[in-house]
Amino acid sequence: MGEAVDRRGTQSLARGVRLLRAVATRPQFGWRLSDLAAHCGMDKGTVHRMLGCLVAERLVQQRPSDRHYLPGPLLHELGLALPDRANFQRAAELHLRALVRQVGGVAFLLLHSGTEYVCSLRTGNQPLTGLMVYPGTRRPLFTSVGGVAILQTLPDKQARAIVADNTAQEVARHGTTRLAALAQMRERSARHGFGVNLGDVVPGLHAFAVPVSGEHGAFAALCLAGPAELYGESRLAEIRRALDDGAAALAVDARKFNM
Fold first, then answer.
1. Helices in 25-155 by DSSP H: which ranges?
2. How far is 15 from 184, CA to CA, in rounded Å?
3. Are strands 217-227 and 106-113 parallel, antiparallel or unpaired?
4. What pLDDT, on the 0 to 100 scale, is given for residue 233?
5. Residue from 208, 207, 209, 204 nearest 229 by CA
6. Nearest CA-CA partner of 208 in 153, 146, 143
7. Distance of alpha carbon 124 from alpha carbon 130, whole angstroms
8. How far apart are CA 190 and CA 149, in angstroms?
9. Any residues with CB less than 8 A from the CB of 226 and at least 6 apart, and which?
10. Is 120 left (phi over 0), alpha (psi -120 to 50) or beta?
């Protein structure tokens, strides 16, 4: 009986974490109850009860104007218990600005989060139509050149499992339309030995990425994106050197701040 109770408690906790991860993917727009339940594959009544608890604990909040569910203030407050990560974030911003000054475009720092990435930083003023990635954005790893760079560092079995998970997410949310383009980005990156996207996913938008390593392996990716006319294939070697230098500097700070 005790094991059954423990198992139910663990399952409830896992479902609550799944809800929080989903809510965090739309920090501005938020979620309707029915959409959130469908997204998580859970019963609407169960989701409603769990959200009530999360709202009471301030992990989730409900916007009065449209009743959409959004990340709550307790998430930020809990994050204050990790000052090293905040210090790393501040140091990383300086490195990203230096990268943009050197080669132009827009620089991103993407953090590895299970089978997904979450955008930690975005720096640069280059307008990028079709690339809606900002701090807090959370998406499957294989949808980003930065995620592909992280996948390249993982054991084959783990990488294949993540690609399978990401593929299932992509098909469930967007159908099969982008699968060939995403596979092309992975294949191109494999040929070059780092993340390379030459308009594979969004026509006219080129992007590049290398992993950033910490104490326990690659925990992030340093990315650069811009229009095709700025980042022609002839600049690949230059861009790779700039990204490698930036990732090396980030790795030094990662060790300093116990990342």
1. 33-40, 44-56, 73-79, 83-103, 145-151
2. 34
3. antiparallel
4. 86
5. 204
6. 146
7. 16
8. 9
9. 104, 105, 106, 126, 128, 205, 206, 207
10. alpha
Rounded CA-CA distance 54/235 in Å is 49
The rounded average pLDDT for each run of 10 residues, N- to C-terminus, in the chain (259 residues) is 61 90 89 93 93 96 96 94 94 97 96 95 87 89 97 97 96 93 97 96 95 93 95 93 97 93
Ramachandran sector of residue 59 (left: φ over 0; alpha: ψ -120 to 50; beta: rest)? alpha
Rg (CA), the chain: 19
Give the pLDDT confidence score for residue 11 in this predicted structure: 84
Domains of the chain by residue range: 2-77, 82-256
CATH number assigned to the domain with residue range 82-256, chosen from the 4 options 3.30.450.40, 3.40.50.300, 3.10.20.740, 3.30.930.10 = 3.30.450.40
CA dist 39 and 89 (Å) reads: 30
Q: What is the DSSP letter of 28?
A: T
Q: Is the CATH code 1.10.10.10 the one for domain 2-77?
A: yes
Amino acid identity for residue 236 in this structure: L
DSSP output for 158-184: HHHHHHHHHHHHHHHHHTTTTHHHHHH
> How many secondary structure helices (H) and strands (E) does the chain include?
9, 8
Q: What is the pTM of this model?
A: 0.87
Q: Which amino acid is at 59?
A: L
The pLDDT, as a whole number, for residue 95 is 97
